[in-house]
Amino acid sequence: METVSLTPDFIFETSWEVCNKVGGIYTVLSSRAKTLGEQFHDNLIFIGPDVAPEKANPLFAEDAKLLSKWRKAAEKEGMACRIGRWLVPGNPVAVLVDFHPYFEKKNEIYAEAWEAFGVDSMNAYGDYDEASMFSYAAGLFAEAVVKHCLKKTDRVIYQAHEWMSGLGMLFLKKHCPEVATIFTTHATSIGRSIAGNNKELYEWFSGYNGDQMARELNMEAKHSIEKCSAHGADCFTTVSTFTDRECKQLLDKPADVVLPNGFENDFVPVGVAFTKTRRLARTRIINIVSALTGEPLAEDTLIVSTSGRNDYRCKGFDVYLEALVRLERKLQATDYQGNVIALMEVPCWLFGPRKDLQERLTSKEQATEPLELPIITHDLYNLNEDRILCTMKSLGLTNEKGSKVKAVLVPCYLEGNDGIFDLPYYDLLSANDLAVYPSYYEPWGYTPLEACAFKTPCVTTDLSGFGQWVNQVLGREGTLSDGVAVLHRTDNNYFDVADGVAAAIATVLNADKKQRDAMRRKAAALADKAQWKHFIKHYYEAYAFALKKATL
Question: Model's pTM, two decimal places?
Fold first, then answer.
């Protein structure tokens, strides 16, 4: 019997977040592209959604000469796509597929998905249709290339990320069974929904049934495609042992291979460049908060932040705000003479930059009075209903004169063009003295890993995959002296975690320069252990598993 090579010739990776910055999966794929590309070069192809086919995509550079035969093969199948480069380190090949024409036949597609795979789309709503039509188009593109452009002897991997990419993977598996398929869930839709609906995920974990909870939480369609994809792929993967346990319980399928998320240090400036970036970003932050509050803030003001997708409970934003209240009381009681800037960089329903703040920032006069609502940098459509703002007001985090903690919501994606900061997220991250991510539900946790990479010590919890990884690497619970403090969190110790966060901020506040520098070095050292060059071996394991399974 001929021995099957367990290394692919071509890899197709598909995700809604290819050339489409939404959340953590964008970071997974874009930061890994260079490492994987060093082995596979232009045989590594990312497939993403052409969300606006008539517009230029700032993350994508089209190249009409690149893979022109592939484009013609797609056109022969009635597909429209753009082929070019994803503008991230490594500049990998990216294909943006136009999925909009398939809405006309979505009922036919869903009917076939039910008959062929048992995918139940009857109760679909929200983003399910859009994601499914994209997924279907991505699978069609790969099918066209495999059938018309590749050799029959070529070993092909098709990796689909999250439920949004599962449908196309299943159709490809049906029509091109020689393609080895991998399905990766970064967080189960049901696990995230249980956590987001204020249910106790961990206390009653062993009693949860995924199908039952899908019905209760009106998640049947997303759960169905996710579960069918997990069971139908040649190799099912997830991002941490934490999520693997969740998959086994809620999807009735443990992962075949765990793929921990890494990071590339290509994004991190070094030496003088880092120092300059940090200094400029700190100055910008301090000037903005001073303009908002009407109070001059010292250059050495402690800067703390949290950030992430607007998932109030899962990301621990509620705990962060509670911790700031407790920190304010502590600083007032000790008559601390300085201030702490506490940013919340969380995209909300953005209207645009505040005009009054823009005017202050360009004025030569020193502001002496706070602006109206000095706790937010941009205007929102729902300014009076936003959950974070309402919580800040109810807790008294209103930046009154004399307050020690200046809490500020930054409700936009930080891409360097927001009209207030006009700096990218990573530049602002480098300005921090501490980053805080007190997650309740976090399958991996890129934000603390990114913070470490940018030499910022951070706080996370052992309910995040990253926090568990840190504890595993250290052989004990991480502390700030290690660069990452990992707080123990359960369903029922909310206020203990808030106290722990407040204590961590106070620790950094009271640390001298030598101690802070040591924390920063330790944080960077931990991030170095999580570079993709250390984790990429798990992907090769998944490729081998899928290729072997596809040949059986």
Answer: 0.92
Q: Using CA atoms, how far apart are residues 408 and 339, in angstroms rounded to an integer?
A: 13
> Cα–Cα–Cα angle for 347, 527, 485, nearest 5°?
75
**d(Cα 281, Cα 427) in Å, to the nearest integer?**
6
**CA pair distance 485, 470, nearest whole angstrom:** 9
DSSP string, 284-312: HHHHHHHHHHT----TT-EEEEEE-SS-T
Q: Do residues 345 and 306 make contact, with C-beta atoms less than 8 angstroms apart? A: yes
Nearest-angstrom CA–CA distance, 162 and 174: 19
Is the pLDDT at 105 greater than 50, yes or no? yes
DSSP assignments along 160-200, one per residue: EESGGGHHHHHHHHHH-TTSEEEEEESS-HHHHHHHHTT--
Which residue's entry shows tokens 């018309």? Answer: 148
Look up residue 50 and give its DSSP letter.
-
Residue positions counted in the chain: 552
Angle (deg, nearest 10), helices 355-362 and 271-293: 110
Beta strand segments in 477-535, E: 484-487
Which of 538, 467, 466 has the alpha carbon at shortest distance from 35? 538
- Measured over the CA atoms of residue 46, residue 49, residue 53 and residue 55, the dihedral's sign is negative
Quick one: what percent of the chain has pLDDT higher than 70? 99
Distance CA 223, CA 229 (A): 10
In angstroms, the CA 116 to CA 259 distance is 29
Beta strands in 375-437 (DSSP E): 378-380, 405-410, 434-436
Residue type, 381: Y
Q: What is the CA radius of gyration of the chain?
A: 24
Give the model confidence (pLDDT) of 491-537 as tens digits: 999 999 999 999 999 999 999 999 999 999 999 999 999 999 999 99
- Supply the pLDDT for residue 2: 41
pLDDT value, residue 294: 96
Give percent helix, percent strand, percent coil of the chain, each to the nearest 5. Answer: 45, 15, 35
Mean pLDDT, residues 142-154 taken together:
97
Q: How many angstroms separate the CA atoms of 460 and 445, rounded?
A: 9
Cβ-based burial of 346 (10 A; exposed 0-12, middle 13-18, buried ≥19): buried
CA distance 431 to 447: 15
Strand partners, 82: 96
C-alpha dihedral sign at 13, 90, 22, 54: negative
350-353 vs 484-487, strand pairing mode: unpaired
Mean pLDDT of the chain: 96
